[in-house]
Design goal:
Largest sheet: 5 strands, parallel
Structural class: alpha/beta
Distance between the termini: 11 Å
CATH architecture of the largest domain: 3-Layer(aba) Sandwich
Strand order of the largest sheet: 5-4-1-6-7
Helix content: 40-55%
Shape: globular
CATH topology of the largest domain: Rossmann fold
Number of helices: 9
Strand content: 15-25%
Length: 190
Amino acid sequence: MVKYMCFDAFGTLLAFGPGARRANPYLRLVEALARRDGVKPPRLPFMTRNVPIEVFAEELGLAYLTPVLRHELEQDIAGIRVFDDVAPTLAALRSQGRRIAVCSNLAQPYGEVVRRLLPGLDAYVLSFEVGARKPEAAIYQAVCNAFRCAPREVLFIGDSLRADVEGPRRFGMQARRLERQAGQELEDVL
């Protein structure tokens, strides 16, 4: 029996509400930068720096977008929901003595929502706090550090083949992919 369970957040435990269109204010920043500069910008550190979106807007010379970004961020956050199978599955895992973590690539404003919607987990390993994103080894090491265990003792479950299966396996963890769009639920991969 695997004692340590680690789940991706979005697409695995959490979703943007049914029919909800993501506002994605961070994409708005990237698109505004591309329009202004005429080139696609390099990958920006939205998910690996612990700062609010207003700081990024200011640093990129796009502070005039702040009111729109705040509104879109509020829309995004209001649309987040927990998949129906999550609470009973996590409760069942807890009753079996398993320790549970969430490990997610996300920007700082979404961290509070993850903690609020998924309370009482043993660890929250969030890219903006760790300074690394999946599939970088440092974020998986942070999971092992939180659990005080070896990689082989962790089962990682998520919806991304690259970040939630290949990355953890390369690091030495066990990993399984959850395909919600194909109708799978957590029980199907456990």
